[in-house]
Amino acid sequence: MRSIQRDGVPESVVGRVFSLLSAFRPEDRTISISELARRTGISKPTAHRLVHQMAEWNVVEVTADGVRVGMGLFELGLLASRPVDLRAAASPFLADLYEATGETVHLAVAEGTDVVYVQKLEGRHGPPTASRVGGRMPAYCTGVGKALLAHAPPDRLAAVLEQGLHRRTPRTVVARGLFERELTRIRETGVAVEHEESSTGISCVASPVIGDNGEAVAAVSITGRANRIDTSRLAPAVRTAALGISRSLGTTGARR
Fold this sequence. Notes:
By secondary structure, the chain is of the alpha+beta class. It folds into two domains: 5-76, Arc Repressor Mutant, subunit A; 81-248, GAF domain (Beta-Lactamase, 2-Layer Sandwich). It has helices at residues 13-22, 33-40, 44-56, 71-77, 81-101, 143-150, 154-163, 176-189, 231-248, and strands at 5-6, 9-10, 60-63, 66-69, 104-111, 114-121, 136-138, 192-195, 202-210, 216-225. The strands form three sheets. It has a six-stranded antiparallel beta sheet. Helix 6 crosses helix 8 (176-189). It is globular, with a radius of gyration of 20 Å. Mean pLDDT is 88; it is low at 252-256.
């Protein structure tokens, strides 16, 4: 079988294009082609050629200050129906959670072994968090991720376990047996709790939105300062919101 990578660099044109696009970081307003080449391992002449081809399709814009993501890519992103439909259904429930608590509210979906945040309402009281709309986090150490994994197809959970549970903070659960017991509790209660497992000083409580097939289609959470947020008090509100989103999506698979 022909390899699709050489020395970590994709061999196909499509692979190299996506590698270049994935090299952009949230803090990058613009980035030089030299830096894109460095981050991806793609040669500078190849990066230069591909960037200018992408610019013809408005996927990126080449300016005097460097390269930035183009409106064409943004427009394509809006066609991703799952997040758009989900956000529309979830919006009133997320707004209610935010108004009632003043804490940061998240809505996330599963993507491989990660979670992708499709909505975030920044809390009035809480600290800044690393999450952002469109951003990823490992599923195993986040509240929304554990809520999703507890109701995930077996192959997704197997992929997470095979990839390994790596310690991000002193409180990250890295023992497989303990992690699997926690997922069992989440299936029973419909609530996932994270105490400083993804970021020090941050705790959250989450609940899955369950589809008709019994699998989670999304998860909703409230996040705040670990020394102030009362996850047990907030759990019923998060669970109620998740059930409401499920009903709005027309699913009936919620178990509790």
